[in-house]
């Protein structure tokens, strides 16, 4: 149960990081243009 909870949190954090990086990249691209 503990391992599952940790894995779920890990995946949630990973997804948040991916979204943040995507947003940052988009903002950076728009700023360049």
Average pLDDT level:
83
Overall geometry: rod-shaped
| Uncertain runs | none
Helix content: over 70%
Taken together, the total number of domains comes to 1
Radius of gyration: 14 Å
Would you list the SSEs in sequence order as H and E?
H
Give the termini distance in whole angstroms.
48 Å
Profile the largest sheet.
none
Number of strands: 0
**Count of helical regions:** 1
Q: Could you please describe the fold and organization of this structure?
A:
The protein has 33 residues and is an all-alpha fold. The protein has one domain. It contains one helix and no strands. The protein is rod-shaped, with a radius of gyration of 14 Å. 0% of the residues are buried.
Task: Give the structure's gist in a few sentences.
With 33 residues, the protein is mainly alpha-helical. The protein has one helix at 2-32.
List the helices and strands and how they pair.
Blueprint: H1 2-32
Features:
33 residues, rod-shaped, mainly alpha, 0% strand
């Amino acid at each position: 149960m503990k391992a599952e909870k940790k894995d779920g949190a890990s995946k949630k954090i990973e997804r948040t990081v991916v979204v943040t990086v995507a947003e940052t990249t988009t903002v950076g691209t728009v700023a360049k243009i």
